[in-house]
Design a protein that fits this description.
Uracil-DNA Glycosylase, subunit E, binds uracil, 43% helix, 11 helices, alpha/beta
């Protein structure tokens, strides 16, 4: 295999979510000893025992999801502040994404900020560092915010921003979160917004629009202020989309100016 083929194979594995070595050396599981087949039972007299009761039917996936959402709602509702919400979220065991994640990515920035930004889910960098929007898309987000005088590392009402995601755990291979993952984590997100109590919320891309507004179609709804989560929310293009489609930065700039105008009370 030449260098280019080896690199393409490696990138394919990373894309599929296999981005971490489990052992120091490869293990060929086909070479492992197979368990001995069970000895065939000796012929016996007809079975006189009473019939074994049938196993209960497998739980209905819809009921399982409803129970998982109810548990999320109960845990989120009992959190009285952001640290207890972060702890409740970290302890929530129904979302399997948690099993593959290195960190529960809760938030970054100043919770007292007037603006709260909601993204989709951590990517690889965010999973490693435990903070939202720290990879390439996050760096673009920082530059976008800076252009309208906002800064996640600043305190104080004027410049501060608070940042979180719909999901706190990285989906394998950065795939789009599915509907059940969003449904399970939505009670935590709603409580997060309630406790942080920002004046304005920005929804970055389709996933937070789907979660919060119940609809996607960011190309159509971006730039329109909508009342949700008991406050004005602004759907915008996700910075990762802007990295792929730089021409869309024109619309993103218009949306940033709209956000600035709202903050200044001029809109
Ligand atoms: N994309 C997101 O939506 N959130 C992050 O934290 C990083 C990338």
């Amino acid at each position: 295999m030449d260098w280019h083929a080896a690199r393409a194979a490696l990138e394919w594995q990373i894309e599929a979510g296999a981005d971490e070595a489990m052992l120091d050396a490869p293990l060929n599981r086909y070479d492992l000893a197979q368990p001995a087949p069970a000895a065939s039972p000796a012929p016996s007299a007809p079975d006189q025992r009473p019939p074994v009761p049938m196993r209960p039917a497998a739980p209905d996936p819809g009921e399982q999801l409803a129970a998982a959402v109810a548990e999320a709602r109960r845990l989120a509702g009992s959190a009285t502040d952001l640290p207890s919400l972060a702890a409740a979220m970290g302890a929530y065991g129904h979302c399997e994404l948690k099993l593959g994640a290195r960190n529960t990515v809760f938030s970054d920035g100043d919770p007292a900020a007037r603006v709260m930004i909601i993204g989709e889910a951590p990517g690889r960098e965010e999973d490693i560092r435990g903070k939202p929007f720290v990879g390439a898309a996050g760096q673009l987000l920082d530059r976008m915010l800076d252009a309208i005088g906002l800064d996640r590392s600043a305190g104080g009402a004027d410049r501060a921003v608070y940042i979180t995601n719909v999901l706190p755990w990285r989906p394998p291979g950065n795939r789009t979160p599915d509907a059940s993952e969003i449904a399970m984590m939505l009670p935590f997100l709603e409580r997060h917004v309630e406790l942080a109590a920002p004046d304005l919320v920005v929804l970055m891309g389709n996933t937070p629009c789907q979660a919060v507004l119940g609809r996607a179609g960011i190309t159509r709804i971006r730039g329109t202020w909508i009342e949700a989560l008991s406050r004005p929310v602004l759907p915008m293009f996700h910075p990762a989309y802007l990295l792929r489609q730089p021409l869309a930065k024109r619309e993103a700039w218009a949306d940033l100016l709209s956000l600035r105008a709202r903050l200044d009370g001029a809109d």
